[in-house]
Amino acid sequence: MVFKKKELIDRWYNDQYLEMIKKEIETIKNGNKIIENVDLTGIVIGPSAVMAIKDLNFYKVNFLNVDLSHCEISGSINNAYLNNVNFFKAKLDRSTMFKAEILNCNFSYSKIIVNMDDAVCEDCNFASVQFNAGTLGLEYGGRRVKFKNCNFTNAIFNRVEFRASKFINCNFENTKFINCDFRGVKLEGLNSPHSSQFEKMDIPEWATV
Predict the structure, then answer these.
(1) What is the mean pLDDT of residues 115-143?
(2) Lowest mean pLDDT among 41-55, 82-96, 98-112, 148-162
(3) Cβ neighbours, 10 Å, residue 60
(4) Average pLDDT, the chain
């Protein structure tokens, strides 16, 4: 059965559905945050969440094969281990992912306002993602982040900073960088973005001309 986004979110307001997913929610709440093969599609974490999951956070979660597509998350995903997690069309709004290990995850078509200091992302799909700033400007992005073998096709980096970060063997086809702070960023591999992909910012020395 194919659900519309509204249906996926609305089910979290249904007591019967919450009863079905109660075991997984209690596992996360109790700090035993090893979760495998679970459908959490459409979950809302943050101020707008339903009472049953209002205080939930993903601090130090260990997620393997978890579906978080269409989710809306405000809050901590710090020190998390995320392997094969689906964030398709997710909305991460003022979240933090400090020191998170993110492997084989799909963020395609998501909107991301997040601080990722010291996070590691490997073999992740960021196609058509929008990395956005908060209301104050360059307070989101991340420092010392490592992206390895990640796909940024058609992604947009808008007013974010990734200072002292590293991109290794990443795909930057049609990626746009707008008014970002990339001081100290290093790039390894043959897939370097073209200088024309950078707008209203200093063009890194590793961009092709």
Answers:
(1) 90
(2) 41-55
(3) 15
(4) 90
What is the DSSP secondary-structure string of the chain?
A: ----HHHHHHGGG-HHHHHHTHHHHHHHHTT--EEEEEE-TT-EESTTS-GGGTT---TT-EEEEEE-TT-EE-SB-TT-EEES-B-TT-EEEEEE-TT-EEES-B-TT-EEEEE-TT-EEES-B-TT-EE--BTTBTT-B-SS-EEES-B-TT-EEES-B-TT-EEES-B-TT-EEES-B-TT-EEESS-PPBGGGEESSPPPTTSB-
DSSP bridge partners of 168? 148, 188
Quote the CA–CA distance of 209 and 2 in Å, as a whole number. Answer: 45
Residues of the chain with pLDDT > 90, as a percent, come to: 67
Q: Are 45 and 58 in contact (CB under 8 A)?
A: yes
Question: Phi and psi for 13 in degrees, rounded to 5?
Answer: -95, 5
- Least Cα distance to 11 among 40, 47, 45 occurs for 40
Token pair 């130090």: residue? 60
pLDDT in tens, 44-70: 888 766 767 777 889 999 999 999 999
Please give the distance of CA 27 from its chain centroid, rounded to a whole number.
22
Please state the separation of Cα 66 from the chain's center in Å. Answer: 14
pTM score of the predicted model:
0.91
